[in-house]
Structures are given as C-alpha cells and as structure tokens.
Amino acid sequence: MMASTATSLDKLNAMREDISVEAYNKQLRILGIEAINSATSLEELSQIQTTYKLKTEDTKNKALELTTTLNLLNQAYANNYISIDDYNKKVKEWVDIATQDATTLEELRVAVGQFMGDDNFIDSNPLYSDEYAQGLINLASKYDSCAEAVAEYQDALTTLASSTAENREEIKKMVEAAEEHLEMSIRAEEAASKHGLVLDTLKAQMNEIAKAEGVTEKTALEMAIANERMNRGVAELVNNWEDWKKILKESDKTAEDYAATLDDLSAAVTELVGWYDDLALDSEFVEENMGLIDKAAEGDVTSILKLGAAVAQLSIASADLDATLFSGSLADGSVNAF
Questions:
Q1: Distance in angstroms (rounded) separating the CA atoms of residues 121 and 113
Q2: What is the C-alpha to C-alpha distance for residues 155 and 177, in angstroms, rounded to an integer?
Q3: 3-state helix, strand, coil in the chain (%, to 5)
Q4: Distances from the Cα of 207 to the Cαs of 135, 201, 218, 295, in angstroms?
Q5: pLDDT tens per residue, range 186-211
Q6: Are the CB atoms for 188 and 176 separated by under 8 Å?
Q7: What's the pTM?
Q8: How many CB atoms lie within 10 A of CB 157?
Q9: Half-sphere exposure of 163 (CA within 13 A, CB side)
Q10: Are 99 and 134 in contact (CB under 8 A)?
C-alpha cells in the first residue's frame, strides 16, 4: 500500500509499518497542511501543529489570519507560530490603519497606545513613533490654525533624523515640545468645536495662563476651556435666573414650561461647572441647591465650586469631576462673565 493513498491520520498510522519513516513524515506533513485550513482558533492550530509535527513556517500564514486582536497576536508569537518580524509587521499594519481612521486626538492616541497598554508608548517604543507622528500631522492638517505648529513639528522631526549621538537627547526634547504644542493646537480646535467656543479667544487666554511659572501648555489649555465655559454659564444665569427661578417655584412640575426651564438650567450649569457631558438636573437637585444657584448667578466663586461638587455627587456613578483643575481655574477669586 502506498502512502499517497492515506486520507486521514488513522489510515496513515495504520500504514506506518509498511512505509519508510521518510514517506510517513512526508505524508504526515501533507495531511497537516490540509488540516490547517480547518483551524478556527489558535488553540486548534496548536493541536494540529503538535499532532502533525508541523514547523512554524507551516502554520505562520494561518496564525496571522487568526490573529484579529493584540492578545491573539501576542499568543501567536509566544507559541512560536510567527516570528518577531511577522509580529512587528502586523502591529504596524494595524496602527497605520487605525491612525488613518482617527478623527480626534483621543482616537489617535488610543489607536496607537492600545497596542502598548501605556500612554508613554512614543518614548518607550520607537517602533510606533513614526505612525503616531504621521497620524498627528494628518489630523492637524484638517485645521488651518495648526499649520504653523505642523511645520515646527516636521522641522523638529527632520532635525532629529539627522542628529548625532552628541546632540540627540537635546533634539529629542525639542521634538517633544513641538509635539506637545501641536497636540494642544489640535485640542484647542476640538474644544472650540465641541463647546462652541471662540478659538482665538480660547488660545489667547491659554497663552496668557501659560506665562505663569510652572504651568504647562496642556494645563493652560484645560484651565482656559474651564474658564471660558464658566464665564458663559455665569452670563446665562445672570440673564435668565430670576425668570427661571420664578417658573421653577410657581409652575406645576408636569408643565411644559417647567421641563423646558429645567433643560435650560441644566445647560447653563453644565457650562458653569465645566462638566464633561450634558447634565439633566431634576427638581429635587434644584430645590436642594437653590441657594447655591442664587449666589452662583452673582458670580460667587465659592458657590460655583460647591455647585460643582453637588453636580459631581449627582453623577458620581458615571463621572469624575476634576476638582483640582476647576479650583485652579478659579484661584484668583474673580469671575468675568461678560
């Protein structure tokens, strides 16, 4: 009986005494290669590899086909289904696709960072820095206001590419500074769009805050956003609170004007305390905090802070108010609502 007639492992093993070791191993590999096509997981592929004594080169393509997540890719590499070159190539393909699809800075950082589980992936893993840099430039190119920051960043990257061992660390710091500046330029655009703020006003305030010693550009931007939103919230309360309060006190809670006023007040308080999402205040919250809202409408800083804390408690299950940042934006004890 010839080995070529074996169509299953059982049949091949039944023929083992009648064929040479070389013929047996050759036929075993043929059956193994055929079995690979039926594998639907790395676990099945592992069993097939062991059973049919296959090599890494035999299972590599199927292993790559089955690795649809980073965890699976890590597993495939740990089990020697793929080489380190295969691993890096696959990840770079994923990162490249993800960075092209990113529409916000947060999406871009997640797209690259998810492969590392570390927000400091750029510094600690130079393999991915090129993808992040290109994704950052692509994202910033949507905004005219980022053109100068993009040019500075590209110049810094070019300088780094031609740097020597003697000056590389110094130039890396220059690249990091240019990168942070570009990121903040993008964040300013995104914040202005999301919250309906005037970009030039926001950036002017950010630049003014950043002049203070020890204040980073990121902190300055966050404080500028919080302050602009707070001022707008105070202005809304100053202009409308007396009318709203009358409706909330005198109208039936099931009336349309009561519900509409609650919505308007919720929107104003969302801006006032710099909340990350739209609030939906209820009558109980308003009744309990009427005094704070009264004083907040007058620009009282302490009352605004206390109102922010009350909002945080209301939403504690799903949100986290950055009290430190909020306090910092009000540290001078004054409010400019107009």
A1: 6
A2: 12
A3: 75, 0, 25
A4: 25, 10, 11, 30
A5: 999 999 999 899 999 999 999 999 88
A6: no
A7: 0.62
A8: 19
A9: 18
A10: yes
